[in-house]
Amino acid sequence: MKEARVIWTEGMQFVGAADSNHAMVMDAYPEVGGSNSGVHPGELLLISLAGCTGMDVVSILNKMRIKFDSFNIKVRAESAAEHPRVYTRIELTYVISGKDIPAEKLDRAIELSQSRYCSVGAMLGKTAKISYHYEIKKPEEQP
Predict the structure, then answer these.
(1) Are 129 and 115 in the same domain?
(2) Strand 4-10 vs strand 13-18: parallel, antiparallel, or unpaired?
(3) Residues 74, 4: one domain?
(4) What global pTM score does this model have?
(5) What is the pLDDT along the chain (143 residues), one digit of tens a residue?
(6) Pair 97, 58: CB distance under 8 Å
């Protein structure tokens, strides 16, 4: 069984850790009593989703022997108007750079993550419509 814990420090700030024992500071916006000194819990969900699907896609691309130079995922989300303000729509943009990245293989890796492997996406998908698209850039197109 997985375990996590949070310890209140002050105001609305908590320090959390799980089985890996890596600490993370969480806080809230000043208008609700926080000091904005850490990531907000709802933001953590979006970061977790991107990390989960990103790890899947990298693993699948490695198995396909697809080499890439850089990879990132942008996440945008809309929340319900009323409490609990669950995410109702999440949009993922996968951005990958490399010399020869076949679009069909990248799409397949993303689709496998979305439909089969990403547990965070499966949980968030219970309340949110999750959609995605991707961009393939040549190495020289990177900033």
Answers:
(1) yes
(2) antiparallel
(3) no
(4) 0.93
(5) 999 999 999 999 999 999 999 999 999 999 999 999 999 999 999 999 999 999 999 999 999 999 999 999 999 999 999 999 999 999 999 999 999 999 999 999 999 999 999 999 999 999 999 999 999 998 876 55
(6) no
- What's the token pair of residue 70? 């850089």
DSSP 81-92: SSSS--EEEEEE
Task: Judge if 74 and 23 occupy the same domain.
Answer: no
Half-sphere exposure of 35 toward its Cβ, with a 13 Å CA cutoff? 7
Pairing of strands 87-97, 129-137: parallel
Selection from 89, 109, 111 nearest residue 101 by Cα = 109
